Amino acid sequence: MQVSKKWSVNSVVLCVAAILLAGCGGGGGGGSTPAAPTTGSVKFTNSSTLFAIDEAYLALPADPTWGVKRNSSAIATGTSWTLSGVAPNTYDSAITSYGSVSNYYAYSYGFAVTAGSTYTLTASNTSYTGTLVVNNTSGINSITVLYVSTSGYGMGGNVLSSSIAPGTSRNIVNIPSGSYFVRAVHGGVNRDNSPVPIASHSWTGLTYN
Amino acid sequence: MKKYIKMIGVSLVSTGAILFVGNAYSSGLVGQPQFDAPATTGNVATAANASVNNAAVTANEPAGPSAQLNATSSNAIKQTPTPRSGQNVESDFFRNEEASPK
């Protein structure tokens, strides 16, 4: 009788143990699922072999300006930099690369950044705008109007925000690569040049005397 | 005699129970410390799995969308970032073209 009672007690204890063990087995899968990401990233990849990305901008399409640059240091050739924590939305982006006479720019518009995803923007040697350097070496005449167009002389509107005074120069920046017709109204006279080549990350000079 | 038979019956049942748990018993799962050990192991295993899963997701993340930056602006609303000092006065090809009558 003593033996039977002892076995019974052992049975109860070990059965409870078995139940507890079985219960523990399925408890490891819950509570460790990572929270869903709420932001995305924009990766600026500089595949150019020549030009660093000195400034990187990100703005909403309706923003009136590009705002402040997002990168704290230049993105060297062959490297990338990622802007993280970007709220999901549609964005515009611009980059700036420093040149000897002006800055050069490249853009991407209307791309979607989604949560948990990285949108990659790539710049190459040919990505950038070029600059037209207009030198007015005349001692008398101003250049009052300047047309820069791919379609013909006098097309596309005046690109000057103010006249180019005698003895001064003006950089016309942000021009896409291509071959242009340039008309300057210099001392009231139309002066035409074509073709005027504009290339990525470079400048072309025109001198009016 | 009846009591003796009844006791044997209980003993057989009890023996069955003991044999059922016997593997755990003989494997060292005895008493409270043994119950704690499997639970702790389970948690560690779960954490390790979660970590491995996270790493796998990162490594296998498909390439995201991308675009090539270019010099063609289809949107001239924004002002070009400020030019550097010490350079010629600038006029913005896009901004002024947009602002000027065609």
**Which stretches of chain A are low in confidence, meaning pLDDT under 50 for 5 or more residues running?**
11-29
Q: Structural class per helix/strand content of chain A?
A: mainly beta
Helix-strand topology string of chain B: HHEEH
What is the chains' assembly state?
heterodimer
Strand-and-helix sequence of chain A, N→C? Answer: HEEEEEEEEEEEE
Number of helices of chain B: 3
Taken as a percent bin, the fraction of beta residues of chain B is 5-15%
Largest interface: A-B, 80 and 60 residues
Distance between the termini of chain A: 125 Å
- How much is the average pLDDT of chain A? 87
Tell me the β content of chain A.
35-45%
Mean pLDDT of chain B, rounded to whole units?
Answer: 52
Write the layout of secondary structure elements.
The complex is a heterodimer of chains A (209) and B (102).
Chain A: H1 2-25, E1 40-46, E2 55-59, E3 80-86, E4 89-98, E5 103-113, E6 118-123, E7 130-136, E8 143-149, E9 168-175, E10 178-186, E11 189-198, E12 203-208
Chain B: H1 2-26, H2 31-59, E1 66-68, E2 89-92, H3 93-99
Provide keyphrases for this structure.
heterodimer; A: 209 residues; mainly beta; three-stranded mixed sheet; three-stranded antiparallel sheet; 1 helix; elongated; B: mainly alpha; 3 helices; rod-shaped
Description:
The complex is a heterodimer of chains A (209) and B (102). Helices cover 11% and strands 44% of the residues of chain A. By secondary structure, chain A is mainly beta. In chain A, strand 10 (178-186) and strand 11 (189-198) form a beta hairpin. The N and C termini of chain A lie far apart (125 Å). Chain B is 60% helix and 7% strand. Chain B contains 3 helices and 2 strands, in the order H-H-E-E-H. The longest helix of chain B is centred in the middle third of the chain and has 29 residues, at 31-59. Classes of the chains: A mainly beta (209), B mainly alpha (102). The interface between A and B is large, with 80 and 60 residues. Strand 9 of chain A pairs parallel with strand 2 (89-92) of chain B, so a sheet runs across the interface.
